[in-house]
Design brief:
By secondary structure, the chain is an alpha/beta fold. Helix content is 34%, strand content 24%. It contains six helices and eight strands. The model has no long low-confidence stretch (mean pLDDT 96).
Length: 243
Amino acid sequence: MTVTHSLLQYKDSNGNVYEGDLFVPRTTGMRKLPGVVVYSAFRGITDFEREKAATLAQEGYIALAADPFGKGIRPTDKMQCFEIVRPLVSERIDKLKPVIIAAIDAIKTVQCIDDQKIGAIGFCFGGLCVLDLARYNIGLKAVVSFHGTLKPLPNFPLDSIIGTAIQVHHGDADSHIPKEQVDEFHVEMRTRNADFVFSSHAFAEHGFTEPEADSFGLPGVKYNKKAADRSWNSAISLFKEVF
């Protein structure tokens, strides 16, 4: 399937400008297509996120690699990335929520999108983003978190999550996500009556989907091809189910 790539500029509720990478399959006629937003790991949009969005477009979905930092802000140094991400994670409702919601609103403006069939995937930091989207009950069909942070939203009601299928892929050897956080996540999802699947991949460490993870120079972060392939195939199966 032929896929077109373009840049999509959009704003959040505070007027901040973002620029994501949009991938659209070329189809005949005016058939509406489902959409999937791809939320990045701590480095922001890289070739990895673009490749995932392009692959989703090959599957027949309109895909947007969301910009978490702002138009023109593309840090290459990992410490700079952490400096940008840290306040977003520490103030998830006030600072991060407008950023992640803006990308959902943006993909709904794309021609031929079926705005009733929107999903999201996220890696690491992006995994936290998509789980928060499910917690906000904004009508997504499905979200998939890959090695994402599992902590609940602070001081936020544990209302039922309605209509959103949740899939979580966790590395069983992930030293960045302690067992207590995993256990608390299960309790939260049960309390919320959520439709969730939690997969723990044997021997997989944090960042297991990222082919470049071994070069990050971060302890406990390592690529695992088997876990990466299995988790991706599971995500594609989920989207085929819900769409």
